[in-house]
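Quick check before the chapter quiz. The format below is the same one you will see on the exam, so make sure you can read both the input and the output lines.
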Amino acid sequence: METNEPYDQTSPVQELVLNAEAQNYLREAGKWAVFLGILGFILTGFLLLAAFFVGAIFSLVANYQQTPYPAGMGGIVSIVYIFIAVFYFFFSLYLFQFGSRIKRGILFSDAMAVSTGLDKLKSFFKLWGITTIVILAFYALIIILVVVVGITTSSLLHR
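Here is the expected output.
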C-alpha cells in the first residue's frame, strides 16, 4: 500500500534499538558464522591442495590403467578445483567477517561494527544469489543444448 505523505527529513530519525533477545540471536549467529567461516577456510586449503595433486593423479591413472584421457585433462581439473576454491574462499570470508564484526559489535555496543557485519552478510547473500542465477542459467543452457542436439540427432536418424 502506497502512502502519499511526503517524507520529512527534518524530523528526528528513530534509531533501531535491539533488545537483549535480538542481540543474543545476532551473537549466536555470529558464533556460527565464525565457525563456518573458519571451516570454509580449511576446506579451501584442502581444495587447493587437491588442485595441485589432481593433475598428477590423473597422469598416474592414465599411465597405469591405459585409459585414453585427453592430454591436459589433469590441468583442466586442477583449474576447476582452483576456481571452486577461490569461490568458496569468498563465501567463507564474508561469513567470517559477518560473524566477527557482529560478535564485536554486540559485545562492545558498537553500532558501526554491527552495521559493517550486516553489510558483509548482505554481500554473502548477494554472492549466493548471483551464483544461483548463474548456475540456473547454465542449467537452462544445458537443457536447451540437450534438446537441440536430441532433436537434431532424431531428425538425422529418421532420414
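If your answer matched, good. The chain has a mean pLDDT of 88.
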